[in-house]
Design goal:
CATH architecture of the largest domain: Up-down Bundle
CATH superfamily of the largest domain: MFS general substrate transporter like domains
Number of helices: 18
Mean pLDDT: 91
Shape: globular
Order of helices and strands: HHHHHHHHHHHHHHHHHH
Length: 423
């Protein structure tokens, strides 16, 4: 049993190490090669492919290719195309164009995003085969995914790869290792004789009937609105910190030279805040917990806008990283639990798919494009350093105001009475 847990720990570590190599540092590289105005597109593609690729790969894993082998195949393809993106960056340097870089990156992301769900399937299957309780055994295993993400961030930070195309090669290297390792994992069964289902059932679309329930409709709509916040700091926090380096006063500040390391505090906080969710849900219920998440997002953005790389400003930056754990976990995990507890068993998995589609799919995609428009409006063409940083601060304040206003509307429109005895 310990052996299978360790093997799953390694798998989860590698999956998220692939992602951590570039997710929070890609914006720095894009900004340095003159693609700062396209950061939103690079992050929006993750949401776009999340609308259909996980479902498609899930069908393939159920019917034709065992999940562990498909996991390896997807990571191999993703690694090859991420390496090709890195090669384009290496070959053309600062002259690399959007058309030379983005297509390879987009294909890589398209094959990476389904692997999070595939990894979960491999874990659940292996734990069940070992006779273990997945509810108790999986969370401690999944934590090592976040540890892999953090370690990968530290590698690109302290090697300086965060500034260039090298981070793409680091991601590709992790992916190749995982692609090979995945083929050694316990076999997952496939059902080639599975009963034919309608298009609606195959893609879980029947769960959209939940929108007929006014309370669930409001919940999903606000999940979409809050989902718009998800990729904002992933895409723009480190380029913002990097911009301080244009001033001799801040160029050698620890927060500027190690901006990706500073951002990793967010993931550490995320890991720790998971432990707070059961208590807060039992004590306050989903509405108050979600309101806390809205407030945490507003604080996250406000602290970034008001902060700076030294002195009290650095304290505000660190606070923005710490509060991220509450903002992310109290929304994503608590929201998922609410969906699980308030949907019929027959469509529970599909309902989770709708929740993910509204947040990480539509919300994150539209949020990335909108965030790019806001950042462009306040920062493009600002040659003066003080004007540029004032523009960045104003952009963060706009994001903070958005989260605050949406939170107030949620408090008014979402009707929910907490019943502690059901928690």
């Amino acid at each position: 049993m310990k052996a299978i847990k360790f093997r799953l720990i390694v798998m989860n570590f590698l999956i998220f190490a692939v992602w951590g190599a570039y997710l929070c540092s890609l914006g720095i590289y894009l900004g340095r090669i003159g693609m700062g105005a396209n950061i939103g597109k690079f992050f929006a593609i993750q949401g776009i492919v999340s609308l259909f690729m996980p479902a498609l790969m899930g069908i393939v894993a159920d019917r034709w290719i065992p999940a562990q082998k498909l996991l390896g195949i997807c990571h191999f393809i993703a690694a090859i195309f991420m390496a090709l993106a890195g090669y384009m960056g290496m070959k053309y340097g600062a002259d690399v164009t959007f058309g030379q870089l983005f297509p390879y990156y987009a294909i890589s992301v398209a094959f990476f995003m389904p692997t999070i769900a595939l990894g979960n399937s491999v874990s659940y299957n292996a734990l069940n085969q070992a006779g273990l309780d997945t509810v108790k055994a999986f969370p401690p295993i999944r934590v090592f995914g976040t540890i892999g993400f953090i370690l990968s961030m530290w590698i690109v930070n302290f090697t300086g790869y965060k500034n260039g195309y090298e981070q793409l090669f680091v991601s590709a290297a992790w992916g190749i290792i995982l692609a090979i390792y995945a083929f050694t994992l316990p076999n997952c069964p496939v059902n080639k004789n599975v009963e034919s289902k309608s298009f609606v059932d195959t893609f879980g679309l029947r769960a959209f009937a939940l929108f007929k329930d006014a309370r669930m409709a409001v919940f999903f709509i606000f999940s979409f609105l809050l989902g718009m916040c998800l990729q904002v700091t992933n895409g723009f926090a480190t380029p913002f910190l990097d911009a301080f380096g244009q001033s001799p006063e801040y160029a050698n500040a620890f927060a500027v030279k190690n901006n990706v390391f500073l951002s990793s505090i967010s993931q550490v906080s995320e890991t720790l805040c998971i432990l707070l969710i059961p208590f807060f849900l039992r004590k306050f219920g989903i509405k108050k917990v979600m309101l806390i998440a809205f407030g945490a997002w507003a604080l996250r953005f406000f602290f970034l806008g008001a902060g700076g790389p030294t002195g009290f400003g650095l304290v505000l930056f660190i606070l923005s990283m710490i509060v991220y754990g509450v903002a992310f976990d109290f929304f994503n995990i608590s929201g998922s639990l609410f969906v699980d507890q308030n949907t019929d068993e027959k469509i529970r998995s599909s309902a989770q798919g709708v929740f993910m589609m509204m947040t990480n799919g539509l919300g994150a995609t539209i949020g990335s494009f909108c965030a790019q428009a806001v950042v462009n409006h306040f920062t493009l063409g600002k040659a003066d350093f003080n004007e540029l940083m004032t523009g960045w601060s104003n952009a963060w304040y706009v994001f903070a105001a958005f989260a605050l206003v949406v939170g107030i509307l949620f408090a008014i429109l979402f009707k929910y009475k907490h019943e502690p005895e059901k928690k």
